[in-house]
């Protein structure tokens, strides 16, 4: 393999294929190939993208992709199930920004659904938003006492009435 040799990968599926290629520390390249799309990628990543053994795809970051000009070969059943779980995890990751890992995917999806429900309820409450209620106690039922004036005011005097 020459240093700058490229392989063009074709996505024959009905789903967008997304995966990351690691070039080195801090250098991650996100590859996105739409249904029916093509992407030229350095050939040094061929085995990482798709690994075949005895005419069957057995591993890879995007095992459903096919090198341009080659016929499609069967994908091992375990890879097919794993790819389906990967699709669900990618959907969850795009919705939440976090990844769940295969074993906790169902629990994470259930929690995501609960979170969406709670967020919708919170938005509805904020839209309705009632004015804050004041606490009422025995003293609060009486009218408030005006504050005392800051300077003394003359008090009116009362003359006695004749009888």
Question: Please, could you describe this protein's structure?
Answer:
The longest helix has 24 residues, at 105-128. The protein is α+β, with helices and mostly antiparallel strands. The strands form 3 sheets. Strands 4-1-7 form a 3-stranded antiparallel sheet, with no helix packed on it. A two-stranded antiparallel ribbon has the order 2-3. The mean pLDDT is 76. Strand 5 and strand 6 form a beta hairpin. It has a domain at 6-75. Helices cover 29% and strands 21% of the residues.
Strand percentage, roughly? 15-25%
Number of helices: 3
Gyration radius (Cα, Å) is 35 Å
Can you tell me the residue ranges where pLDDT is under 50 for at least 5 consecutive residues?
A: none
Write the H/E string, N to C: EEEEHEEEHH
Portion in helices: 25-40%
How far apart the termini lie comes to 127 Å
Shape: rod-shaped
Strand order of the largest sheet: 4-1-7
What's the rounded overall pLDDT mean?
Answer: 76
């Amino acid at each position: 393999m020459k240093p700058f040799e490229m392989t063009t990968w074709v996505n024959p599926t009905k789903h967008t294929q997304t995966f990351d290629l690691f070039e080195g520390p801090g250098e991650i390249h996100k590859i996105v190939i739409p249904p029916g799309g093509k992407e030229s990628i350095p050939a040094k990543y061929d085995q990482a993208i798709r690994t075949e053994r005895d005419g069957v795809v057995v591993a890879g970051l995007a095992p459903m992709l096919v090198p341009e000009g080659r016929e499609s070969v069967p994908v091992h059943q375990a890879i097919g199930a794993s790819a389906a779980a990967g699709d669900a995890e990618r959907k969850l990751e795009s919705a939440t920004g976090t990844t769940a890992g295969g074993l906790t995917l169902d629990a994470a999806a259930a929690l995501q659904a609960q979170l969406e429900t709670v967020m919708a309820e919170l938005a509805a409450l904020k839209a309705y938003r009632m004015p804050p209620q004041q606490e009422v106690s025995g003293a609060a039922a009486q009218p408030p006492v005006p504050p005392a004036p800051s300077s003394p005011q003359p008090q009116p005097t009362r003359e006695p009435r004749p009888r």
